[in-house]
Amino acid sequence: MLVPRVFLTSEQIQKRIRDMGQQITKDYPDGPLYLIAILKGAFMFLADLSRSIRTPTRVEFIGISSYGQNKTTSGQVKVTKDLDVSIENHHVLIVEDIVDSGVTLTYLVNLLQQRRPKSLRIATLLDKPDRRMRPVDVTYVGFRIPDEFVVGYGLDYAEDYRNLSDICVLTEETPEAPA
Ligand code: IMP
Ligand code: MG
After folding, report:
1. Is this model's pTM higher than 0.70 or not?
2. 140 C-beta closer than 6 A to ligand 1
3. What is the number of helices (H) and of strands (E) in the chain?
4. Statement: residue 138 has pLDDT above 90
């Protein structure tokens, strides 16, 4: 049986995101800053991060899939929902839930660079550096975490657990036999 065990509490997450928002506000004195969130995992991080940024921002979504139903990357990436707007000549910050192999972000950065933004940076809530296959330049990192599969706060396992307020590690546990 898979059991979610709390790894980062909602309070820890909120505090860290407030600090990230302050830093981003300092780094981008002038808006509009385009926050581009990767669906679906980044939706909760986007909601909190955007509210902690004081620079005028605009919010856009892009859908990218590389994982399917498994815990490990398929190595194949495709756009499932493209942006509705042009980002040419705008400051763009990609908002991601977690950087793992780096395959998704390497693909997305190449794609968005071709659209000539004024600047392009990445903010991720979580970073699992041990698993990197492609180097990615991430400017804002919430937490560096060990190589564990985590769920909650937007992150899923086969579409479950996204609505948890804490970030949890999924562990395999044998249910106790009834007394
Ligand atoms: P990458 O292309 O391997 O860097 O994969 C990044 C994507 O994989 C993230 O946007 C997540 O959707 C997913 N992912 C990677 N690690 C985890 C995890 O521990 N829990 C849930 N999703 C994960
Ligand atoms: Mg994702």
Report:
1. yes
2. no
3. 3, 9
4. yes
